[in-house]
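TICKET: design request
STATUS: open
ATTACHED STRUCTURE:
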């Protein structure tokens, strides 16, 4: 595949003004795709981030505000972008608590942002992909889409749901030039993970270094965080011709977590 084999393709990456989403947008732009960045904020720096990324890679990059907790805004994002060839459902939040203490508003928000948003954007994007006979739906699930841990009920339920949604999307789109898959990262050091550290320190009564080594990377045999570049590279691979028959499955980028 040529280095800019995605030239002329348009990608939407939800939740992409930081972390993994930004890494995926960066990798897709480096491969030549025009990109739409998104989050729920509408700050000058969000638009500047897109402008800078686009200029650096010689592609069109736009930032479109849409709150992924709201179904209508998810669908409006796809419409405002003018549809897309590559849809990366990445927006996500986390909350850590025992089930009996889990705040209902957090449960609802996690299911909406981490799972239902992918249903809405996929529903809005598929007709355009069918019309072109080409498309890639890439859902950023998690090792927690394949395995569980205590205290993360909503996140694990949502991520298992994302894996299921990817499979159904793949079956409905099979044979029409469209693939749908879930990337399942282990721990990647991003703001979302950073924000979990204080909670984990409290829950486990440990200092920062111990919680990282013994709790967060406890199940990651490599004992190394995955990087946003590695997730981006996996997304680019899924867009390639080599991956055209990879559909309805999960790709783990987890340092061996799910081999245990
Ligand atoms: P992050 O906090 O850096 O990024 C999350 C992104 O989602 C941000 O851009 C944020 O603005 C956006 N977002 C949050 N709420 C939103 C909303 N209502 N509407 C639109 N955008 C919203 O976190 P991250 O670690 O980069 O996580 C990205 C995805 O990767 C998530 O789905 C997460 O579950 C998944 N993931 C992360 C890890 C990890 O270790 N970091 C591991 C596995 C899976």
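STATUS: resolved
RESOLUTION: sequence designed for all positions
ATTACHED SEQUENCE:
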């Amino acid at each position: 595949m040529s280095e800019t084999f995605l030239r002329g393709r348009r990608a939407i990456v939800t939740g992409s003004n930081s972390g993994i989403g930004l890494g995926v947008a960066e990798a897709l732009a480096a491969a030549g795709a025009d990109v739409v960045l998104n989050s729920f904020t509408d700050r000058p720096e969000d638009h500047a981030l897109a402008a800078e990324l686009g200029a650096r890679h010689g592609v069109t990059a736009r930032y479109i505000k849409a709150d992924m907790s709201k179904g209508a805004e998810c669908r409006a994002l796809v419409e405002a972008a003018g549809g897309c060839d590559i849809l990366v459902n990445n927006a996500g939040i986390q909350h850590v608590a025992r089930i009996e203490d889990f705040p209902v508003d957090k449960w609802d928000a996690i299911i909406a942002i981490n799972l239902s948003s992918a249903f809405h954007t996929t529903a809005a994007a598929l007709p355009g992909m069918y019309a072109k006979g080409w498309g890639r739906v890439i859902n950023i699930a998690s090792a927690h889409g394949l395995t569980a841990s205590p205290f993360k009920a909503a996140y694990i339920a949502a991520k298992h749901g994302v894996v299921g949604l990817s499979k159904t999307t793949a079956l409905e789109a099979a044979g029409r030039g469209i693939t749908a898959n879930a990337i399942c990262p282990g721990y990647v050091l991003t703001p979302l993970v950073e924000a979990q550290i204080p909670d984990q320190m409290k829950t486990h009564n440990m200092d920062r270094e111990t919680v990282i080594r013994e709790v967060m990377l406890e199940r990651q045999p490599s004992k190394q965080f995955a990087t946003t570049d590695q997730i981006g590279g996996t997304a680019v691979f899924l867009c390639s011709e080599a991956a055209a028959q990879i559909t309805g499955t999960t790709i783990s980028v987890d340092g061996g977590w799910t081999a245990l």
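CLOSING REMARK: The first strand starts at residue 10 and ends at 13. The chain has a mean pLDDT of 97.
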